[in-house]
Amino acid sequence: MDKSWMHSDRRSKAYEFGVEAFLNFAVENLLTTTHIRCPCVKCVNLKVFGVGIIRDHVYFNGIDQSYKNWTFHGEPWEATTNASRNVEEDDSHSRYSFVSEEIDMDDNDFGDFGSDPYEFANVIGDGDQPVYPGCRKYMKLSALVKLYNLKAKHGMSDVCFTELLILQGDLLPEGNTIPTSMYEAKKTLCALGLSYEKMHACLNDCILYRKEYEDSTNCPTCGISRWKQGKDSILKEGVPAKVVWYFPPIPRFKRMFQSHETAKSLTWHAARKSIDGQMSHPADSPSWKLLDDKWPEFGNEPRNLRLALSSDGFNPHSSLSSRYSCWPVILVTYNLPRWHTLF
């Protein structure tokens, strides 16, 4: 498909025809007109909208010109032959290399990681680059994550955050690796691939507006409206009364098996031997053994993950006067050694 229009003037007919061809291509391949990733320079395929909103975004903001392979919109991934992106097979250089052969994963299992399966390894490689030559305290990725946390905590606008990044780059020594714009920072963090979903919920916690209730405007259990009520007692249609943030666990589980080191740790419980007869790991517990006896096919595969469910409330910004609260539901991985637990 001709993609030269992506570099054309947004006021030209070539750009207009190209946008329509792109949207038609996405609808034909994704079979939806309401849940399509937006490829504009601000959303960079992080947000999902309907066709009409995406059309407006691509016109007003412009399309991300680095999005050359439309994998999020139905185009097959094209493997790169760039030798600089090859993953070394030697253990001393493959800390974050893929272990598909070891865990019997096929190409489809990497579908949640983005358009390039080597992209995550490249991003992790950035974690070994110092912020500037000689810096030992912060690496590029850790510094960027901390800066982005500050942005979220204090409600910085994208423009303010971009100016902060530019100032940081000017203050740091020459050769620093700090991104110079919000766009570059978002592209880097997007490559991590750990997405989340926002789901509308009943104000009384009766249901989630998904599946058969996706188009409902009132809760079928208590009858309360899905939309938020303003101070004037008028419903703000389109503004949900309550939102649940959902972090899909499957992509995170797959990500754990991308590292040789972590993949080996996930089967540590099967290789270990209890010498003193004491319970030193959940694998020694009666509950673990009961599960193995009840579902032997599951228990015989050491790579199957054993999870614990935990939930509690906390105040995210340590402000006791804040009315805002979170009630997270956390999955704890029991497969790992007791000194190395991942959530």
Q: Can you characterise this structure?
A:
This is Transposase-associated domain-containing protein. Residues 3-75 form the Transposase-associated domain. The protein has helices at residues 13-30, 51-60, 100-103, 119-126, 140-154, 158-171, 182-190, 249-256, 260-266, 268-271, 286-294, 296-299, and strands at 36-37, 48-49, 197-200, 227-229, 235-240, 243-246, 307-311, 329-333. Helix 1 packs antiparallel against helix 2. The strands form 4 sheets. It has a two-stranded antiparallel sheet with strand order 1-2. The chain has a two-stranded antiparallel sheet with strand order 3-6. The longest helix is centred in the first third of the chain and has 18 residues, at 13-30. With 343 residues, the chain is of the alpha+beta class.
Protein traits:
two-stranded antiparallel ribbon, 12 helices, globular, Transpos_assoc, 343 residues, single chain, Transposase_21, Transposase-associated domain-containing protein, alpha+beta
